[in-house]
């Protein structure tokens, strides 16, 4: 069954990779509108998260933002054909500008390693491929649930020279060693960790937050930058956004450091809230002394 699934997914992505980006985005927007119109789990969770994170919006504003968020998420999925099957040059040609490039240049010139934190915002696959072209990159990698897709995904992420290591203790040790030796890494900072995290505010609510970024920054003296690839209107391509992390990102107090990480994620999200993956159950795990349920 997994073999059949992988063949179907690869075939679909290959076909999508042949469709020009403007047309692909229009198609994704139509499908996203249909998905939002149905009583799906995606719609339900998106609306709940937006109600919690942006209470200042009216009901109509929140529904419009939720609809656009679902459409942008479909675009992100459809783009994977271009990201995984396209050549490095063809993918890089989709980048139409880089805001905050000076922060990357300064970090590279300093000789220190860099931790690129890219939230589930815009196209994180594009962002990861771009930074792997700048300097040696070592990243954590978890094989997909469909084993037959592993070669495609791992191969595409490594094709510009990135080294992938397992998402276990041995992998973290390798990653730490690589950072200490001057390599860089890319991390999705808004994932809820299985363990080793702490609760910290995220859009006004406690969220179980990874401590990995802060620990790596403290141990390796790495520069932490928050980056994302913002999708431009009408399939025109992407603008890369880069900003320094909150100054407390490497604080020895893990809660202060996690709060700094979440503030940095929020700063990115507020630049393009419709492109954030609001259907992710970011608040699923609750503090032991909290009875409120989010989902």
UniProtKB/TrEMBL annotation:
A single Gene Ontology CC term: plasma membrane
InterPro entries assigned: LipA_acyltrans
Organism: Pseudohongiella acticola
Compartment list: Cell inner membrane
Keyword Zinc appears in the UniProt entry: no
Phylogenetic classification of the source organism: Bacteria, Pseudomonadati, Pseudomonadota, Gammaproteobacteria, Pseudomonadales
Protein name: Lipid A biosynthesis acyltransferase
A GO MF term: acyltransferase activity
GO biological process, any: glycolipid biosynthetic process
Keywords: Acyltransferase, Cell inner membrane, Cell membrane, Membrane, Transferase
One protein family per Pfam: Lip_A_acyltrans
């Amino acid at each position: 069954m997994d073999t059949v699934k992988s063949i179907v997914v690869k075939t679909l992505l290959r076909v999508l990779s042949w469709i020009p980006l403007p047309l692909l985005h229009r198609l994704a927007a139509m499908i996203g509108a249909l998905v939002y119109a149905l009583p799906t789990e995606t719609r339900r969770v998106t609306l709940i998260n937006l109600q919690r994170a942006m209470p200042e919006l009216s009901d109509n504003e929140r529904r419009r933002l939720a609809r656009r968020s679902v459409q942008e998420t479909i675009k992100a999925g459809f783009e994977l054909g271009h990201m995984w099957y396209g050549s490095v040059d063809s993918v890089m040609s989709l980048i139409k500008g880089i805001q905050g490039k000076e922060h990357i240049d300064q970090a590279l010139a300093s000789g220190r390693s860099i931790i690129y934190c890219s939230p589930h915002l815009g196209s994180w696959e594009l962002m990861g491929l771009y930074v792997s072209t700048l300097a040696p990159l070592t990243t954590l990698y978890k094989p997909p649930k469909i084993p037959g897709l592993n070669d495609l995904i791992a191969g595409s992420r490594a094709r510009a020279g990135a080294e992938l290591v397992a998402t276990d203790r041995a992998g973290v040790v390798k990653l730490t060693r690589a950072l200490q030796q001057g390599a860089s890494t890319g991390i999705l900072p808004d994932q809820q960790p299985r363990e080793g995290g702490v609760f910290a505010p995220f859009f006004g609510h406690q969220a179980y937050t990874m401590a990995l970024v802060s620990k790596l920054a403290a141990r390796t003296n790495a520069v932490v930058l928050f980056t994302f690839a913002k999708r431009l209107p009408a399939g025109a391509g992407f603008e890369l956004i880069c900003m320094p992390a909150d100054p407390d990102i490497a604080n020895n107090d893990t809660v202060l450091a996690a709060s700094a990480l979440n503030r940095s994620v929020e700063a990115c999200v507020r630049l393009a809230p419709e492109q954030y993956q609001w259907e992710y159950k970011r608040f699923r795990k609750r503090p032991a002394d909290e009875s409120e349920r989010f989902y």
